[in-house]
Amino acid sequence: MTTTSTPIVRLTDLRLDRGGRSVLRGINLSVPRGSIVAVLGPSGSGKSTLLSALTGELAPASGTVEVFGQPVPQNQRELLELRKGIGVLLQGNGLLTDLTAAENVALPLRAHTKLPNPLIRRLVLMKLHAVGLSAAADAYPRELSGGMARRVALARALALDPPLMIYDEPLTGLDPIASGVVMSLVRRLNDTLGLTSIVVTHHVHETLPVADHAIVIANGGIVFSGTPAELEHSDDPLVRQFLRGEPDGPIGFDAAPRTSEAA
Ligand code: ADP
Ligand code: MG
To answer: What is the pLDDT of residues 83-94, one digit of tens each?
Structure first.
C-alpha cells in the first residue's frame, strides 16, 4: 500500500466511554486523504466525543484510533507532536478578545515555532488572506461579525499548516449567509491546501453539499455511512427522523426526559 492510499484517519471497532458509560461503540470509519467527511447526529449523540479520540484527549475503551497511519500515542510528547498536525476549530471561536485578528492567528506560530516576527506577520497575513480577511488583520474580535470571527478562528486553526482539519459545530450561531460562506471556505481550503477535513455538525443541510462522505451517529453507534446523495435518499427510519429533526422516533434523546420537552 502506498502512503497516499493510507487513510488519514482510521477507526476500528472503537468504543468510547465517558463518565463510566459507553457513549459510542462498534465505530468503524476510514477517512481518505483529501476528502471531507461530515459527522452528523443529534445533540448528545457523541460527535464531540468522537473528535476527542482523534486528538488523543480521550483514550479508547477498546478498539483503535489511527491518525496519519499511526495509532494515537499515549505519551504527552508524541501527543503534542500529533496535535500540531491537526487543526481544530472548536465550538465557539475561542478568540482572545484583547488581541487583534492577526495576533490571534499568530498564537500557534509563537507557541510552536521560533520564527522571527516579520516572518510570523507574513504567514499570518497569508492565512488571513486564505479566509478572505486580509483587510481585518488589525481588527479586534468585537469589531468583527460572527462569520468573520469564525473565519479568523479558522485562519488560526490553519496557522501551522495541519494536514487534517477538524471542525466541531462550525456553524453554531451563524446566520444562513455566514454559514454558506464558512462551509464553502471549508471546501475551498480543503481542496486548495490539500487538506483532509472532518466536520462534526447537526447542520445537515448546510454541510452535505460540501461533503464527500457522511456518517450519522445516533443511539451509540454509526447508523448511516455513505455519500450525501445516499443519505438524502435513505429510507431508514432513524436517518429520516434525524434529517427531518423530529423529536419522536427511533432516536432516543437522552438530554432530557421526552415528556418534559416542549417541542
Ligand atoms: P455531541 O457532541 O454529539 O452533542 P457529546 O460527545 O458532547 O455529544 O456527548 C455525548 C454524551 O457523552 C452525552 O451524553 C454527554 O452527556 C456525555 N459526555 C460528554 N462529555 C462528558 C464528560 N466529560 N463526562 C461525562 N459525560 C460526558
Ligand atoms: Mg458536541
So the answer is: 999 999 988 888
